[in-house]
Amino acid sequence: MRTRLRPAPLLAALLACTPAATESPDSQPPGPTNPPPLAATSAPAPTATTPPPQPQAETLEERQVSKSAGVPGGVTVLWPRIIPRDIVDDNRGLAAALQQQMRRIVEKHLPGRPIDFRPEPERVCPKTGCTGVSVGLLLSRQSQGCLVLALISRPGVAPTKIVPWVGKVQLRSDTVGFREWPESQITVSDYVPCTSLLTTMDAQETAIAAALQAAAQ
């Protein structure tokens, strides 16, 4: 901000003029006339500056939204949703392994399509949807038992197809609305030992492949 300075004050008066005196033996020469003092000039008052506003930190829900919408014709592989929330810290490694396994399945059954592999914690598409097919996961764990669902959506703001992958569930509906919680549509019948994840995944790969190919059409 440009600081406006006050104009310097003008002189208070001109020097006084002294008329000539008539010389006489008793007269004394007139003494010097002192000019009036100049008025003091004060320094300009400092201008207060307002600090720039600080950006607000993102909420947990905002951090979970993908920073990328993917590319047309591609596939966005989202970070898994882990429930309940209090097991997240202990199961990041398992979630990362499941995400990598899903990437392998996408590469196998949708070959040649560009893949946008999203980091933790980006687990949902933006509000306008992902540009291509989106693939998410739901991981739930109870002690040594695991439950995994594949969540597959067409491009844009589209419902999500729920495909059981590991564990046994009853589905009230095999789809859920865009960005809605898939657990609202399931009832868990049985968890599968986490040590047998790979065997169970292989058995359900055909169903996941069919859902991927349908979403990509």
Structure description:
The chain is built from three helices and ten strands. It has one domain (60-216). The strands form two sheets. Strands 1, 2, 3, 4, 5, 6, 8 and 10 form an eight-stranded mixed β-sheet that branches. With 217 residues, the chain is of the alpha/beta class. The relative contact order is 0.13. It has helices at residues 60-63, 92-109, 197-216; strands at residues 75-77, 81-83, 115-117, 133-142, 145-153, 160-166, 168-171, 175-176, 186-190, 192-193.
Features:
217 residues; alpha/beta; disordered N terminus
Largest beta-sheet characterization: 8 strands, mixed
Query: Termini distance?
Result: 58 Å
Instruction: Categorize the overall geometry.
Output: globular
Number of helices: 3
The low-confidence parts are 1-29
**What's the number of structural domains?**
1
Number of strand segments: 10
Overall average pLDDT: 84
Helix content: 10-25%
User: What structural class do the secondary elements suggest?
Assistant: alpha/beta
Radius of gyration: 39 Å
- The percentage of residues in β strands lies in 15-25%
List the secondary-structure elements in sequence, H or E: HEEHEEEEEEEEH
Quick summary:
By secondary structure, this protein is an alpha/beta fold.
Element layout with pairings:
Elements: H1 60-63, E1 75-77, E2 81-83, H2 92-109, E3 115-117, E4 133-142, E5 145-153, E6 160-166, E7 168-171, E8 175-176, E9 186-190, E10 192-193, H3 197-216
Parallel strand pairs: 1-3, 1-4, 2-4
Antiparallel strand pairs: 4-5, 5-6, 5-10, 6-8, 7-9
